[in-house]
Amino acid sequence: MPFRTDHISHFKTLASIAVPRPARALAWILLLGMAGSIAFLLLVPWVQTSTGTGTVIALDPRDRVQNVTALVPGRVEQWFVTDGSRVRKGDPIARISDNDPGLISRLRAERAQADAEIAATRRAMGVAQRDVGRMGQLYSEGLSPRRDLELAQIKVEDYGAKVAKGLADRNRLDIDISRQSVQIVRAPRNGRILRILGGDTATMVKEGEILATFAPEEAVRVVELYVDGRDVPLIYPGRPVRLEFEGWPAIQFSGWPSVAMGMFDGQVRAIDVSASSNGLFRILVEQRRGGRPWPKEPFVRLGAKVRGWVMMDTVTSGYELWRLLNDFPLQYPAGAIDGTLGKAATGDGNAK
């Protein structure tokens, strides 16, 4: 016999049982939460990013940490700096004394001898040239054989070769004198001495041996980031980048860059055409014009660690969640397949 609801009044205990209010409230909360989550995933935009880590470097290779080397072999006679010393361009760093103190005087004596030999050879060549003129006149008049004229010409050429050899020897001596005379190693630019590596008067140094490491100041800084090769096809010069410098307080929301705090703006300057030894691709990021200025030294020094987010296209939050769950690459925008992506930023094509 089917159960009839109008007979429930006969079951007083069953009629007195009702759904608890907390359960009803929880059901409504879950229902509204699911509806809100679906609306959030479908309507809220999300900025895709390509994340990378790297360091702060100097754009000009001359502004990077470099080695100060010995210009001549010898012993370090005197140090003018210590670790951490500030130097200006041309300031002395070290003086090197040659093992043979009379070497420069002997080289100068050899040069004087070479000058005398060159002058004597030129005078002899002048006399030989006059002989060629006389022999040529006698040969034209039939008073001298052709062989005498040719011998006179050969003598002139022989003197010319001796003059050329003497000039080459003198140039070699000038180079040796110049090298031996430059026994004071000077700072190439304004900067700071990081570390002294050379020895003292008891230690021999060779030509080209490292004496100290030097870091120039006032360098134009850029950031090198290493990103996954899966994202590199979508990165082109001009792409905006958000940067978080090591030791600088920041809060980053990857999908909503407008609410991030403590971040700094940059833009892609260049991209390596091949992968680095770590399997990632290096991109250079420069400061974005009109953006928040990067921290200056000593707050952010050369070599400081940096974390960066290259700003890509905007998609829905639901698509981004689906992409992450499936480990798919970033969204390919229009123009990525036919090669027109980024032409406006790089100046290629007819884009204005």
TrEMBL record:
For this UniProt entry, which residues form the secretion signal? none
Classification via SUPFAM superfamilies: HlyD-like secretion proteins
| Coiled-coil segments | none
Q: Where are the transmembrane segments?
A: 25-47
The answer to whether keyword Hydrolase applies is no
Q: Which Gene3D superfamilies match?
A: 2.40.50.100, Helix hairpin bin
Q: InterPro entries this protein is in?
A: MFP
- Protein keywords: Membrane, Transmembrane, Transmembrane helix
Which domain of life, per UniProt?
Answer: Bacteria
- What is the protein name for this chain? Biotin/lipoyl-binding protein
